[in-house]
Structure prediction request, 895 residues.
Amino acid sequence: MNRNLKFICLAPVVIYALILIFFPLIYILFISFQTSDNYGGIIYVFTIYNYIRIFDPVYLKVFFNSAIIGLFVTLACLLIAYPFSIFVSEKKPHIQKLLITLVLIPFLTNSLIRTYGWIVLLRKEGIFNTILESLSIIDNPLSFMYNNLGIFIGLTYTLLPFMILPIYNSVSKIDKKVIEAARDLGAKPLNIFFKVIVPSTYSGIFNGCIMTFIPAIGMFFIADLLGGGKTMLIGNLIKNQFLVSRNWPFGSALSIFLIIVTFLLVRLYKKLGGKLDDLGGF
Amino acid sequence: MVKLEGVTKSFEEKEIIKGIDLDIYEGEFLTFLGPSGCGKTTLLRTISGLEAVTSGKVFIDDVDVTNHAPQKRDVNTIFQNFALFNHMSVQKNIEFGLRMKKISEVDINKRTKDIIKMIQMQDFKDAMPPQLSGGQQQRVALARGLVNKPKVLLLDEPLSSLDLKLRKKMEIELKQIQKKTGITFIYVTHDQDEALSMSDRIAIINKGVIEQIGNPREIYDKPKTLFVADFIGESNKFKANVISFKNNNAIIKIHDLNLTLTIPDDKYKMDEALVAILRPEQINIAKKNDNINTFNVVYKERIFNGNYTKIIGKLNKTDIAFIIYNDKEFAKNTEIKLKYKPQDFVIVRSK
Amino acid sequence: MKNKTLKNLFIVLVFIFLYLPIIALIAFSFNDSKLNIIFEGFTFKWYKILFTNTTLLDALKNTLIVAVTSTVISTIIGTLAAIGLYKYDFKGKNFINSLLYIPVVIPEIVLGISLLSIYTLMRLDLGLITLIISHIAFSIPYVIICVRTVISSMNWQIEEAAHDLGAGDFLTFRKIILPEIVPGIVSGATLAFTLSLDDVIISYFTTGPGSNTLPLQIYSMIKTGITPDVNALTTLIILVVMIILFTSTIVQMRKIKKGYQV
Prediction:
């Protein structure tokens, strides 16, 4: 009886984990060491050329761009999310619940739809420019999008909730008595903030940063729509290798590279005392 | 009612229960008392069937239930933290066991109603467990077990999560319910006060074996081992050695008191190390003209305890505790002359 | 006092930022101009046109089919898995556990292309089926995390209590364990459903011709030219989401408020 229950509980998840997680990743690891025939096919000849190719200056530039944009987006999200979480956590519990739900609502409508909303706002004939022109503040429309600024706004907007949730979770868990104790011991507000509050939310901060930075460098559609295809992120590069240039082995090598970067970040997070279950911030 | 034969239980090579034989009588209140980790809860769980025995046999009402699943045994358990079903009302919780037995609806209603009345929870029968106080939850847990009229009710430290005052009140209630229903109770606790005040018999368990079993008075007055003496109540311990044998008796010497005693021989060896035990209330302040069976201690401190005061004095290097029932004050380092009755000593082996 | 006003102002500004694009979309769903640029007058015509736009409605239908199917399946597998992984030990459990974190942490695009690769390897035709499988693939770990949170804070003695009171394994599971972990299952299912509705990247790689989901349809429309009936549809979706969320939040707020006053 007990054995049946065990089997019913575990068989599906084991099959799932092996077929839909383990096997696909092993398979792209395998492909990444094969040769492309330049027509979308794979020639099964072992090579490490795909990994050498990653260090071609053309691609290094993509990595560099991705890292810079990713870092700027992460920093912007952090600078918005941290004070926001602190201020929200000072409210009464039921107000906090309401405010956090209000953060989640836009997130429940599709990210692409919201990106489209930004296009309506930002483009040359968009709402911002129309308003600014009608107020005679500007004569010629400003370029808010089809450049890095557009990508930056779009990514910051899309990923902000992923930063707010983990930070809010860790901020709201701070024992108010600890802050009172610090005040009692004579600490000034700024000292309390940097010596007591910030250190006890490190894992929340790092969690938010991972959940912002990693998706940021992969979100090709925002770079596509708001960046006008001028700036390539790693996500665009991988997408192109699979769907445009049809060089799967190189695309796979890039993916493996991205996985390695991710795992290094996650290991760092775990080292800082973060829990894997908290990643994702839900 | 319950019989254990050579029960052992091991977890990953580690033996938690080391061969226990025990007879539990019908209608008695038996307590397994011991420090945490002694195996008392595990022993209880082998009776309920929540833990399978490694070897040995378990009988309930002369039926061998060693291989029966818990749901097939006519016993019920009251868990340490109540284990109430939080998504069910008080009434639904209590009915659960009866519904599993597929009894008629009329019977279920009657028995549930009666037991709710007995625990005085009529006004709360539709409440959900999280809305109840600790004491109320405790009563529901008890009712949920009792309503099935099990042959034996097993209680696993059921009072440990309650505060002191409520605990004392529930002790009385538990004992009354046990008497009223006549159901055999097997009770597990590490709290000697609970054990002494409620039990018909106490089994002192240490490191997986029963050190001693008997009624509370026997356990307190006649501890058979140093462990029991230490665990129950407070003891003054004096080192002693076997110095000679005579007929079927052993003659021992208590060095600190310069006293020799004759005790029945229990296969002692020559020179064997023993411990002579006196309870604090068995030591009194001697009168001026008392000359035999006295000794002096140096006053160290007093602990006021409400209706009595405990005095600690030093004899050579050991602390001696005794009880006074007045407000007598002592100056520091005063010598106090104490007396005892030699027949009060309980002698146990030092290991 | 002034401090507090500044704090509230900051909160309001963040919310303006979060809601700006949505409000823009909603406002322009009532705009008479087809070009969607300047507000020319109030109209409902885009809502009427929406109900004749079969491409868009088909995409919506696909989105819902995928979301509902993948949510049901991933919730069942995820719930069983969370219980199984908590209660039972087996060889390779640590390995399975670490595999389960992968979809949560790696970039979606990597999961997308790796799934595309094995579908191609197995010669599966890309379409609704592959889409559903992919959505199940990224949802299960989230369901497991949600259910596990409840399970690990649960008092497992209730299981023994149920056995003790005469309930067998399956009955205990159905009547005792399952109802206790319902909150975790609900939050897991909600999360799976939302993730499925929200997904662009994985769908982009694993869908085939004729099985566009709404986001993918909008993606291609933005590139070729978009019409305000998309705004109308978006407005309706937001409305539905708002209604569902607000009812549940108000219920929860009442509970919290109650607890707060006590």
The mean pLDDT of chain C is 86. Chain C has eleven helices and no strands.
